[in-house]
Amino acid sequence: MNRNITINPGRICQPLGAVMAFLGVRGAMPLIHGSQGCSTYMRFQITRHFREPVNIASSSLNEATVVYGGEKNLLKAIRTVEENYKPEVIGVISGCLSETIGDDINRIVRIYRDAGSESRIIPVSTPGFKGSHVDGYDMAATSILRSIAGDPSDQIERVNVINGIMSPADTYELKSILRSMGTEFLMITDTSESLDEPFNGDPYFITRHGTPISKIEGASNSMATLSLGGCKGGRVLEGRYGIKNIGLEIPAGLENTDRFIGKLMELFDASISPSLMRDRGRLIDAMIDAHQYTYGRNVAIFTDPGYAVAITSMVLEMGMTPSAV
User: Fold this and answer.
1) 68: pLDDT confidence band, cut at 50, 70 and 90?
2) Which residues contact 219 (CB under 8 A, 6 or more apart)?
3) What values do phi and psi take at 224, rounded to 5?
4) Residue 150 has pLDDT above 60, yes or no
5) 4, 74, 124, 307: least buried by Cβ within 10 Å?
6) Which helix (H) or strand (E) holds 29?
């Protein structure tokens, strides 16, 4: 009997994307304002995909809270996370259930703060019944910048980078390119180590890696923001502080990578490093060597929108025909 299956489905809910953003912030704990099954599902998906332990708190809504509202549950959940885990940031993320019953997480978080809490709590409204994980990441990255980035003091010759939901390996490679160019950069979220951590036997409940809060606080001192793959978070800094937001495709393939490096050269008045020139030459050589196998082939591309645009460009460079995207 034939069955249609999907492995690691390409379209998942907004809250999961928001969780991914907070996992890229050091010392952050995501808290889902929804049912217990919602956070369990996300833990399962992320752990299954990245093979790393992930902790996501929950306000554990149930049948009664659907009728009477989940305010008490959320207040209790925030207090529990604050007292037991002592995170630097608590990301309060709404889910399908809390959005359906109309809980105002911004108001509930204000109530908790007014009670005397000094914890940094960032509410993010992410209804899971519309949009996708890509939209959820954007919402969370925007909220993180809006809540944490302070007023500018002295401008630094540095760029902010919002890379979106990118694999740890791709994020690591992106950082390697930036370092090889000798540029100073700030990843607004960084999962290169928090979702790809070496095993050392020490248990942990909160992300030990990622971008520190103190760095994000100074994001307004950067001279520009590079938003990759259609990420929208940079608009916050542009609208509030006039920091130029530059949209670029994910640097996959020759043309997109050239454009990314060219923008760095323009911003920093820098020259391309010899190591990157060697890597570029190897890429061209590999494309030539494989041309007899790739030319004229029809391919189907199934991935996130930002990656889809970049990979489509890459396969066209290799003489392939994207028949379905």
Assistant:
1) confident
2) 145, 148, 149, 160, 186, 188, 225, 237
3) -165, 165
4) yes
5) 4
6) strand 28-33
What's the fold here for domain 14-148?
Answer: Rossmann fold (3.40.50)
241 vs 225: CA distance, rounded Å? 12
Token pair in block for residue 251: 């640097």
d(CA 68, CA 72): 10
131 half-sphere exposure, CB direction, 13 A CA radius: 18
Amino acid at residue number 90: I
Q: CA-CA distance, 12 to 140, in Å (whole number)?
A: 15
Structure tokens at 86: 């002592």
The tokens for 116 are 């005397």
Pick from 49, 52, 57: which is nearest to 19 by CA? 57
Instruction: For the chain, give every domain's residue range.
Output: 14-148, 156-275, 284-324
Specify the DSSP class assigned to residue 220.
G
Backbone angles phi, psi at 200, to 5 degrees: -130, 0
Would you state the CATH architecture of domain 156-275? 3-Layer(aba) Sandwich (3.40)
| pLDDT of res. 1 | 53
pTM above 0.85, yes or no: yes
The residue ranking higher by pLDDT, 159 or 69, is 159
Alpha-carbon separation of residue 72 from 61, 77, 108, 300 (angstroms):
10, 8, 9, 48
